[in-house]
């Protein structure tokens, strides 16, 4: 029996990875290859810190949900504290990513691949911004 596959099913994972790397937003690519840019927990004279939200989730136990938003790509990192408000270390984070952050299903993108593509784009960018040699 002959099996007919759709074009989508025939796309190779390597090609899909190549396409994802070349079309993905600069900031998302930079975070995937070089890490996120999280705001840091610290005292701030009682004022909120940009990119950090929190709310009490159990009034009786004093547990707090803390969400930090990456300054570059917008990924949210969420942690719920132990009773009393302190984070149990190592912290168990959950992440919510912006559209376009995840590669298509079945496509694996390594940090090294993402970094290499950021490096390539950066090099192209600085080459174009360099003053013309006389
Ligand atoms: Zn990020």
Describe this structure in words.
The chain is α+β, with helices and mostly antiparallel strands. It has one domain (12-129). 32% of the residues lie in helices and 16% in strands. The chain has 4 helices and 4 strands. It has helices at residues 7-10, 13-23, 26-34, 111-129, and strands spanning 52-58, 63-69, 76-80, 94-96. Strands 1-2-3-4 form a 4-stranded antiparallel sheet, with no helix packed on it. A hairpin with a 4-residue loop joins strand 1 and strand 2 (63-69). Helix 3 (26-34) packs across helix 4. The longest helix is centred in the last third of the chain and has 19 residues, at 111-129. The radius of gyration is 21 Å and the shape is elongated. The relative contact order is 0.19. The mean pLDDT is 91. The site of zinc ion has 7 residues, from loops.
How would you summarize this macromolecular structure in one to three sentences?
The protein has 134 residues and is an alpha+beta fold.
What would you call the structural class? Answer: alpha+beta
Identify the bound ligands. zinc ion
Give a count of the beta strands, DSSP E runs of length 2 or more.
Answer: 4
Average per-residue pLDDT, rounded, comes to: 91
The portion of residues forming beta strands comes to 15-25%
Q: Report the order of strands and helices.
A: HHHEEEEH
Residue windows where pLDDT falls under 50 for at least 5 positions? none
Distance separating the two termini: 68 Å
Query: Helical content, roughly?
Result: 25-40%
Number of domain modules: 1
């Amino acid at each position: 029996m002959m099996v007919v596959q759709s074009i989508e099913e025939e796309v190779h994972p390597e090609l899909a990875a190549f396409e994802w790397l070349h079309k993905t937003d600069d900031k998302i690519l930079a975070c995937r290859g070089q890490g996120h840019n999280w705001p840091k927990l610290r005292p701030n004279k009682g004022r909120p810190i940009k990119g950090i939200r929190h709310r009490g989730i159990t009034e009786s136990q004093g547990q707090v949900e803390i969400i930090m938003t990456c300054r570059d790509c917008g990924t949210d990192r969420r942690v719920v504290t132990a009773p009393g408000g302190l984070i149990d270390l190592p912290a168990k984070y959950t992440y919510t990513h912006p559209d376009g952050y995840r590669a298509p299903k079945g496509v694996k993108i390594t940090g090294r691949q993402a970094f290499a593509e950021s490096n390539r784009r950066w090099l192209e960018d600085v080459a174009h911004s360099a003053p013309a040699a006389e």
